[in-house]
Every structure is written in structure tokens, then in C-alpha cells.
Design goal:
Strand order of the largest sheet: 6-5-4-3-2-1-16
Structural class: alpha/beta
Number of helices: 11
Strand content: 15-25%
Radius of gyration: 22 Å
Largest sheet: 7 strands, mixed
CATH topology of the largest domain: Metallo-beta-lactamase, Chain A
CATH architecture of the largest domain: 4-Layer Sandwich
Number of strands: 16
Shape: globular
């Protein structure tokens, strides 16, 4: 799993940062969180392709989080996309997407399916789920948790051989959860597999002040991507507009025992993010400030 930051600025683009868009790549599929203006061009400057985006999760309807959607859809269509695109977001997302895609004379050459995901609701991605949680912003806003399903436990070759299972296809069938017969003996997956291992977990807060449930939502996340609009000096102002400081993001990361904290949605006033990073690292050392096109590999936890 790979996270690629396509846009890391808050409110409006800067010469170095585009507005919010975070891509999570799993195999051939890309899940996109927010789609600020110009996202399709950011894709073109990255190693990713917007044609691989299967689902878009919009946190809320401030322009810096959704205005890139019609442009990206048009680029997809003009490049011959066939599979449908799923778009999720807070209440009103169906109307918003319908209006965006009805502008001018352009009609997509593929289906764009928009659907509200209420707080507590989940989208089944097959090998993963994306769950929505209510954030605390100046308009309805969602935080999202992408979590992979548990993986089978480690396969014990020694235990399998002791039970008479020959090396070869039967090993694979057991690893895939299938019971097999070896002579007169039945061998079950639990006979040769250790306890299930958790999948990877990524949390994207969207625009938000710190809120009580966020710690439990982010618990043991491999990566927490958190709104860090300001440094600690402007924390009160950030909160007034429904945002967090980097210090507050670090407090959440520490309390939730996450693996890595990544700060994004920086106010354009910060040409140099040094104070933002320093304030966070005092609380939670394993912190990074996202930059456009920064890539993070997310390994399995074990």
C-alpha cells in the first residue's frame, strides 16, 4: 500500500502546494480522498494515473476539497475510461456531483455514481472497508478510516509436515482457508495457521478541530493524516475556523498510539513549515509534514 500526497495546501493553492487530494494505491486500484482543483494535473506530475481511481471520498464541500472532480472526470472520459467511478461524501453529495457534471455541454462517457455515506456508515471495497465519521468543522464534514480486512495467520511448514501435508498445492489451499484431506486425515487451516493478523489502517481526518472520538477512531492506525492548518501560535484562530494546529494533531497521534503522523492542509501563510513540524515533534516525534508528491509506503504491521 502506498500513499501519495497530490495536494497539501489549505484554502487555496500556492506555488509549491496544490489543494487537498490524497491518493492511496493498493495494487492496481487507487482510492482518492478529496479532489481539490487541478487534481488531474497533479496526477500527471506523479507516478500515478487518474484512470486507476475507483472511488473518491469527499470530506466536505469547501471548494478546495471538491472542485477538481469535474476536471478529473472529463480527463478520464477523454482518455476512454469505461468502468464506473464511485463518489462518496456527506449529505448532498448526489446533488453536488450531478450539478458539477451537468455544467456546459460535457457528458461523461462512463457512469459516475455518487452516494451519501452517513457518519458510522461504511463502504465495502472487498479487501478493505472505508468508514465515515463525523468531523468537527464549519460545515458538515467527514473523517475517513481505510482499514484492510484481517489476514490469515502465519503458515507453519513444520506443523503442516508433521500432519503429513506434502509440499505443494495443499499448502496454498490451507493458506486460503480451505480444509484438505491427506490420506485418511482431515487437516484444517487452524491446524497449521497462527492467529489472524490485522491489515493496514489509514485515517484521513479531513478538515477538523480535534474531537473526542478521533482518538478512538485513529487507535493504532499505521498512518494518521491530520489537518494541521496552523502551528501552535495560531491554534486559537485555527480552531475558530474548524481546523487543528499541528500540536493538537500530535496530541491525537500520541493518545491513539498511531505509527506515523502526517500533517497536511497547511495554511498558505506557511511558506516554511518548520514551526508546524517542530510543534508536533515536541509531542509526537514520528511526525512528517506532507509535501506535494510525497510518497509513503505502508508495510504490513507484521
Amino acid at each position: 500500500m502506498q500513499i501519495v500526497f497530490l495536494g497539501t495546501s489549505g484554502s487555496w493553492p500556492t506555488p509549491k502546494r496544490n489543494v487537498s487530494a490524497v491518493a492511496v494505491k493498493r495494487g492496481p486500484e487507487i482510492v482518492l480522498f478529496d479532489c481539490g482543483e487541478g487534481t488531474q494535473r497533479q496526477f500527471m506530475q506523479s507516478r500515478l494515473s487518474f484512470m486507476q481511481v475507483s472511488r473518491v471520498f469527499l470530506s466536505h464541500f469547501h471548494g478546495d476539497h471538491f472542485l477538481g472532480l469535474p476536471g478529473m472526470v472529463q480527463s478520464m472520459s477523454m482518455n476512454g475510461r469505461g468502468p464506473p467511478l464511485e463518489v462518496y461524501g456527506p449529505r448532498g453529495v448526489e446533488r453536488l456531483v450531478g450539478e458539477l457534471l451537468s455544467l456546459g455541454y460535457f457528458t461523461p462517457g462512463f457512469a459516475v455514481k455518487a452516494k451519501e455515506v452517513p457518519p458510522g456508515g461504511a463502504v465495502d471495497g472487498g479487501e478493505y472497508t472505508v468508514t465515515a465519521h463525523e468531523a468537527v468543522h464549519t460545515v458538515p464534514c467527514l473523517s475517513y478510516v481505510l482499514e484492510e480486512r484481517p489476514r490469515p495467520g502465519r503458515f507453519s511448514v513444520e506443523r503442516a509436515e508433521a500432519l503429513g501435508v506434502p509440499t505443494g498445492p495443499l499448502f496454498s489451499r490451507l493458506q486460503e482457508g480451505e480444509t484438505v484431506r491427506v490420506g485418511n486425515r482431515t487437516v484444517r487451516p487452524e491446524d497449521v495457521l497462527g492467529p489472524p493478523r490485522r491489515g493496514r489502517k489509514i485515517v484521513y481526518t479531513g478538515d477538523t478541530m480535534p474531537y473526542e472520538d478521533l482518538v478512538s477512531i485513529a487507535r493504532r492506525a499505521d498512518v494518521l493524516i491530520h489537518d494541521a492548518t496552523s502551528d501552535a501560535a495560531l491554534e486559537e484562530k485555527a480552531n475558530r475556523y474548524g481546523h487543528s494546529s499541528s500540536r493538537q494533531a500530535a496530541e491525537v497521534a500520541k493518545a491513539a498510539a498511531v505509527g506515523l503522523l502526517v500533517l497536511t492542509h497547511l495554511s498558505p501563510r506557511y511558506e516554511d513549515p518548520t514551526t508546524i513540524l517542530e510543534d508536533a515533534k515536541k509531542v509526537f516525534p514520528n511526525t512528517r509534514v506532507a509535501e506535494d508528491f510525497m510518497e509513503i509506503e505502508v508495510p504490513y504491521p507484521d
